[in-house]
Amino acid sequence: MNSQGEFIASLRELKQRSGLTYRQLEKRAAERGKVLARSTLADVLAGKRLPAPDVLDAFVHACGEGDQVDSWQQARASIAEPAATPAVQRRRSVWWSAASALVVVAAAGTWFAVSGGRDAPAGTSVPTSPVRIRPVAAPDLCLTDGHVRDGRYGPLVAVQRPCSAVAPQTTTLEPLGSGAYRIAWHHPQFGKGCLKVLEDGLLEPWDDCTKATPFTLEHSEAEYTLRVEGRGCVGIAGTGESAEALVGACDQRFMIDTAQRRP
């Protein structure tokens, strides 16, 4: 491999050979005590930057070819010459600028607008188009993906974060009948993931939506309880940004309103 392009192409082939999704690779790395963020890996495989040595190590091991790590590291070192650094930095700067602009646009409300007011009217059906799920106790925060604050679990799980920072990911409720729904997240780069309740109560997005957890939505006026049969209800463990969603006592409610992308 004589160029960064060839190196990245070989990394893509490695991922293809593994047959694993971004989420699965992230989880396998976490099981080894390594960090392999999907967003970072996506940037690498898109050719936006070379992987850092620790990222390359985590990726190769997650793909099941850990015995080849030294060869991969040597190939990376031969490509990561000082002369190549400015070009890599320019690509990263452009990408980070675009990402920052996206957050600003979202914060200004030009990506999403809430239809029908702040809360869903009483007696109406549950929205099934892209929605926001907001804790009643923290109405400016939305249920979306993030990491547990104490680092005890590596893969992404459901947390509460500012609604203005959720785009471009969207949330939909997929009806299953008898008042039950799947909660699905859609990301233009990472694809679709449906929430599954783990043994410790955390909610993790799974690629296989047939294995996702059904949530029964019980509503009183414009507030909803998200119940999981035999487990309890969805709540937020603590307060503030990045607090994790956990299934437990049925003492917390959420607001669900329709989020529509502006034309």
Automatic annotation (TrEMBL):
InterPro entries, per the entry: Cro/C1-type_HTH
Highest classification ranks of the organism: Bacteria, Bacillati, Actinomycetota, Actinomycetes, Pseudonocardiales
Transmembrane residue ranges: 94-114
Top-level division of the source organism's lineage: Bacteria
Pfam families: HTH_31
Keywords assigned: Membrane, Transmembrane, Transmembrane helix
Protein's recorded name: Helix-turn-helix domain-containing protein
UniProt source species: Lentzea rhizosphaerae
Keyword Transmembrane: yes
